[in-house]
Amino acid sequence: MGVSQLMDKDRRYDVIIIGGGPAGLTAALYAGRARVKTVLLERGAPGGQLLNTEAIEDYPGFDHITGPELAQRMADQAVTVAKQECERLDREMAEALKARDQLDALQTELEPIERLKREQAELEHLQKEETARRADEGQLAELMRTIVALDRRIGELAPATEALAGVEREAAALGERLEVAERTAEEQRAAWVREKEYATTRRADLLKQYDEVKEQRDKIEQLGPEGTCPTCRRPLGAEYAEVLGVLDRQMQAIVEDGKYFRQRLEQLSQPPATLAPVEAARDALLVESRRASERAGELRAQLEERDRAVAQRRGLEMRARVLDGLIRARPTGYDRQRHDVVRAELTKLEPVALEAAKLAERAKRAEILVREAELAEQALSLHEHRARELAAAVAVEQFSEQAFAAARERHDGAARALREAELAVAETRGELTSAEAGVREVQRRAAERAAQERQIAELKVRLRLHHELDRGFGDLRAELNAAMRPEIAELASGFLADLTDGRYEAVDLNDDYVVTIIDDGVSKPVISGGEEDVANLALRLAISQMIAERAGQPLTLLVLDEIFGSLDESRRQHVVALLRRLADRFPQVVLITHIEQVREGLDRVIRVDYDVGQGASVVRDDTATLGAADAGVAA
Fold this sequence. Notes:
With 635 residues, the protein is mainly α. It contains ten helices and twelve strands. It has helices at residues 22-33, 67-105, 107-157, 160-223, 240-267, 275-329, 336-397, 401-499, 529-551, 569-581, and strands at 15-18, 38-41, 56-59, 62-65, 506-509, 515-519, 522-524, 557-561, 588-592, 606-611, 616-621, 632-634. The strands form five sheets. Strands 5-6-7 form a three-stranded antiparallel β-sheet. The longest helix has 99 residues, at 401-499. The radius of gyration is 62 Å and the shape is flat. 13% of the residues are buried.
């Protein structure tokens, strides 16, 4: 088994490498440098298949080398690395032994350090306890100040208990008196209302009765003595005059009673004089009762505050007792001066402690280095043995450099011929592929051309159709403009005259419906911003009215957005007045505007504001005066 015969079968290894080729040798080299217990198993001599390889080219670090030569160099390198490792371990061993001697020499200086560290730890603990005790004492002092303030407030609120009882009795008495006063005022007002309602009802009945009796008398008078009684259907005859007299007396009695109840209603039009003092007394009692209730509420709030203060004081007292116990339990005796002295001594001894720590670490390596040195010696022996085996194997193979050169020349010639043939085949295949691609490209372009010709023919047909439609729509637009533009201009002229108080009475529209004002027969194509807004509004209203007339019924809703922008106050009012006059044609008109001055002339105002806090719009009805429900202007 070659090298594997040197393997210790009773030993454990960290890494086992199977195969002694370049990869295995490289892995063994790096594992050895990493001080890992490693064994390499190879059936033959070290180098593996390298021993059977005549020539190696373009290997990292070599342009040309034989296999056996590369294997020999690898084996020699492994021996060199093993020797370097042994030398390194010897140097580290010497340094570790020297560090141990130096550490022994420093023991006398290191003895006080441990004692000072223990004393420093105790002093630091006492320092923390001292700091915590001071913090607790500060909290305790704050708690005591709070308790004193609570005691003062509790004392101030103490009279509230007795005062509340008195105020509650007073409130109860005022409540009883208020109830009696309300009942008295209600009874008197109810009596006045009942008498007024009775007089109103009685007078209405008398008016109805008078109308009935008068109607009956008129019928009897119209029928005359020869007529029949409308009630009993008997001839009146001689009783005609008597019946009329009876009805006259009834009518006279009804009139007298009516006069009485009319005078009575006049007397009852105002509340009786006795009701006002009663209601005034009731209102006064109501004010006193409310004041008593408010005072009782204040006193109850003070009692609740006192209860909360008492509960808070109990909690603070408990917290104060706990803090006092913690303060008493904390250890004392912290000496700041001694702490500073200990810290100074440790600071002075710190370089010695650091040096001792470094020496201790280096001294600990001594035992480890002994074992590593043994392993390094074994590895060196192993690598030397492998190098000797490899040299013997190369000698057995009787390797000849001249034979290798001749074989290499023959191999290179055959390789060149093979490459030339492969290149010729590749060039031929490339030409064939290009030709096939060219044929496919020609076929694709022919198909695209045919498809484009078909698409062009279809587009030409559609283009002719579009030209005909454009011509037809153009003629239709010209006819509609010729028919509608004069009518729209006439309607707009009327609206413009109303909006400008007759200053401008006519407008003209071109084919693009651009408004031109006619002032005393002279066209004014260039006008001010306000006049342009007025003209555009008149055009809008004219178009809306034409739509309504053509529809055969009025438009129920007209919405106008920001039409007051450049108008002065007078023209704004004219616009609102005109919109009101158009109520028969536009029953509902909605104006969207930011101009506050026009709101007084509107029937309803709805305001939309943005609430930054809520991040949403808020809508509210800000109406001052509501108009008719079926016709109005709103914003």
